[in-house]
Amino acid sequence: MQTLYIHPENPQPRLIKQAVEALQNHQLIICPNGSNYWLIANLSSNKALEKLTQFASQQINNPPCLLCQNISQASEYVQIDNQQHKILKNNSNQSMRFVLPANKNTPKKLIDDKQKNVGIAFIQETIMQNLAEEANLALTGVILLMDNQEECLMPYQIEMAFEQVAEIFVSTDKQSNQASTLIDLNSEEYSIVHQGNAILK
Length: 201
Fold this sequence. Notes:
The protein is α/β, with parallel strands linked by helices. It is 27% helix and 26% strand. The model has no long low-confidence stretch (mean pLDDT 89).
């Protein structure tokens, strides 16, 4: 796995382009977003999606999520009613994941077979925003969590633990939080599947 040291606020265009090329070539990359590091894939790459969903299948309460720049982009892949829209609008700036009913545009590999739903999360970081814009691709990913008792993980811990999973590791000085909030919005009464540091507004 190659490590790219990218500035979190002023990403170097040359390194962003290198990460984008990896995504376009069906590779997986690791990149920070919100309070976590994510394993990222190009949504249009069946090969990359296969690897991503295989990894996610070994996780508990950690579904693959569509990484969306805004609610408008999310609505291309999930069904959103007025109440769900209000919740998403109030919390899109938080490091949260949401489960919503999938629509026909969502790749079948990402859809829960029983519930017919899919996870979404919003892009929080400048690096991730630059990747999405430069690639002009829809992105999907899964949070990287480790089976230990540490609340936060340093970048080098993530890099060492998952070096066999991805082709590129985007490193910043950002720590990764092990607690990530997951909200199920499929019913009229939302449910908190996993409570992390982010609190639903």
